[in-house]
Amino acid sequence: MLPAKPSDRLVGDPLAQQARWLDTYRLDLRIAEQGRVISVGDGIAWISGLPSAAMNDLLALEDGSQALVFDLNRDALGAMLLRESSGLTAGMTVRLSGQTLNINATDELLGRVVDPLGNPLDGGGAIPAGVRQPLERPSPPIAARDFVHEPLYTGIKIIDSLVPIGKGQRQLIVGDKGLGRSALALDAIINQRGKDVLCVYVLIGQKRSTVVNTVDLLRAHGALDYTALVVAEASALPGLKHLAPFAGCAIAEYWMERGRDTLVVYDDLSTHAKTYRELSLLLRRPPGREAYPGDVFSIHAGLLERSTCLGAARGGGSMTALPVVETEQGEIASYIPTNLISITDGQIYLDADLFASGFRPAIDIARSVSRIGGRAQHPRVKEEAGRMKLDYLQFLDLEVFTRFGTRLDAAMERPLKRGRLLREILKQRRLAPLSIEFQLAWLTAFNDGLWDQQAPETMADALEQLRRCLTQSPLNLTQGREHWSARLAAEWARPEPAA
Asked: Candidates 3.30.70.240, 1.10.10.10, 3.40.50.300, 3.30.870.10; correct CATH number of 103-377?
């Protein structure tokens, strides 16, 4: 016969407490399951007993550690540790907690750094209780979704004009290490300042110095006020690194379901896939291609399918996803990148040769695509960018022939010169987001040939002159093209004032 639960005991006078306990005591049969740790190591615990345990059930261990059921076998349970004490050893008892995995989602997470369980990592104190949001859940049904119809501006010229992103889109950032993948994502977050977009930045398996630098960078640019960070450091348990993107997605889902526009960055899913492979091999699951388990595709698909644009009946919120994936020596056809390319709505490909030549951001237009972002692009920007892209692609083809010393006629010299000018225009330094009005202005000026007589090395000064012009007398997107063309032509004909 088991005593009453601790919650049934009353605080106060011991005799009165005992009398009331006897009055409320019921003679019932109470059955509780209890398991035992068989072995533990590398973030994995094997547990015997607990016959009613199911996948993703939370387990409470005798020493205060916490684990999640991750594998069901006939003789034992495989669980990944979420919290591990120094005294955890084989032989300890385990019981079902009766809870599922969730995270505390609230507006108080803005400006905070938390782990995948919602525990603060920034020393800022406890986070007030909000809504318990499940980490894993089905994606919204088709009937609840709407078409991607609003643009999400990153402030990066080459993206907003040639590879546009819409709110609710899943746009992959792919490239080798050190080419600026995280820089693109950070620039996109910084550009959301004042645009009523809440951001979630998920750091998976990153060094602590990288985490600190990211937090300091966002704080310096005022982006921490509308950004929550979910961090699973390189030294964290594999279970926490596996859950990190799901925790970030759950937080963004909380805001999306309340009609807000959100942007979530997963940096990066290559590390996440390696962590999932590690857990699967430790749990003795059969390996597949490159030793990854066979369900690694469905894991990422289930995560990214939750990013969408909800219909008006569901509040009209959106979640835009920017997953980051790493390639090795530019091999875009390797297993994890190809999986993610097939799941997402397009990719931004960073090329090592472009980076080495000084073209920053090193985005390869020929291998970058946005399958649905063009639908959300502003009609004026879409029209001007289409004309410019044809010129640029023609230039890239012609430039190949010039490398072999091929003699070109005079008619080909103009496209080559304009292409070299455009290459200089598309260069952009980090942490310098540009407004969409400025981007439409330079697109119009280039298409109208106002810069055809400029030398490539003077384009940076020309763009700065254009920026000053728009700062003093702004243009807006509602004005027609004729007004923009006349205004830019007049400004460019005006001599530059003496210093």
From this structure: 3.40.50.300
